[in-house]
Amino acid sequence: MSTDTLQHWDGISVGDKLPTIKHTVTQEAINQYADASGDHNPLHIDPEFAKGTFYGRTIAHGLMTLAFVSQMMTEWDWDGWAYGGEMDMAFLSPVFPGDEVNVSAEVTTIEKRADGVHALCKLNVFVGDKTILGGTVSRLLSAADT
Amino acid sequence: MSTDTLQHWDGISVGDKLPTIKHTVTQEAINQYADASGDHNPLHIDPEFAKGTFYGRTIAHGLMTLAFVSQMMTEWDWDGWAYGGEMDMAFLSPVFPGDEVNVSAEVTTIEKRADGVHALCKLNVFVGDKTILGGTVSRLLSAADT
Fold first, then answer.
1. φ, ψ for residue B44, nearest 5 deg
2. Whole-angstrom Cα distance, residue B146 to residue B143?
3. Which end of chain B lies in a sparser environment, N or C, as judged by fewer CB atoms within 10 Å?
4. CA distance B90 to A113
5. Phi, psi dihedrals of residue B62, rounded to the nearest 5°
6. What residues 34-63 of chain B have any CB closer than 8 A to a CB of chain A?
7. Across the strands, what pairs with A142?
8. A89 touches chain B (CB under 8 A)
9. CB distance from A86 to chain B under 8 Å?
10. A17-60, pLDDT tens digit by residue?
């Protein structure tokens, strides 16, 4: 079960930039995400409650930021993300209402594994110069012929 | 920068079971998630379109299932997930409207790193006997005294 690394596969190369996604997060968007996800923690949706917490204001759900990452992967290639997507990431800093989140990524490794060829991409997720999410996301470039 | 592994920390032990979460996914819930996330791919929300695709019916967004994982981690301990959460996972099978998703996990490793003590948990995410998501999620048990 060896893993080979490649520089190119099917038009994708190490160093390729993925689509860039920008979203300005609003309290309204956070409230909508709370309803959809069922996560109504007052730290997300109650500005009065949030005043008494460490950050002094509401913060977005971490998975909302991850949804922007998913949007980037979907724009790049929906099938390879939905059917062969992987992620290895950490939540590093919170996102506040009014913040503009910038999501981009770069192909760092192309791996040929037993189940197919995968493109691993280093995430760059920032608000200003603050890193929000760090890690790697990947998609399947082609499934093995089995 | 060595990493020590422990069997117990602050009341948490290797082998501990996390809270179990069950959700029956409906088309209505998928539509709501599409609005909140901005991902209106017809494969998720248009049953007529989905008839012509590989699965022949709509499928839930992968991040909706991940939101159930986040709910489990939140019930276990909100702070350590929101401020020190990590994940390393893969999407393995789709979820269809009507499916009951069962989410559970078990502490497999407690790691003392430079930034604090982390609990790594193996995910068990099933519909019936089909694995939906596989991998590891972790939370911070305590930050390093710095």
1. -90, -35
2. 8
3. N
4. 14
5. -60, -35
6. 35-39, 41, 61-63
7. A117
8. yes
9. yes
10. 999 999 999 999 999 888 888 788 899 999 999 999 888 999 99
Question: Alpha-carbon distance A18 to A6, whole Å?
Answer: 18
Residues on chain B touching A39 (C-beta within 8 angstroms): 67, 70-71, 74
Nearest to A91 among B33, B85, B89 (CB): B85
Query: How many CB atoms within 10 Å of residue A42?
Result: 14
Closest CA relative to residue B105, chosen from B141, B64, B79, B70:
B70
**B79: helix, strand or coil:** helix
- Token reading at A85: 């997507």
ipTM: 0.79
Is A100 within 8 Å of A76 (Cβ atoms)? no
Closest residue in B to A78 (Cα) is: B41
Q: A68, A79 in Cβ contact below 8 A? A: no
* Phi, psi values for residue B132, rounded to 5°: -95, -50
CATH architecture label of A4-25+60-143: Roll (3.10)
Interface test with A, best of B86, B101, B103, B120 (most A CBs within 10 A): B86
Ordered by start, the domain boundaries in chain A are 4-25+60-143
What are B66-90's pLDDT values in tens digits? 989 999 998 998 888 877 889 999 9
Best CATH choice for the domain B4-25+61-143 from the list 3.10.129.10, 3.10.450.50, 2.60.40.10, 3.40.50.2000: 3.10.129.10
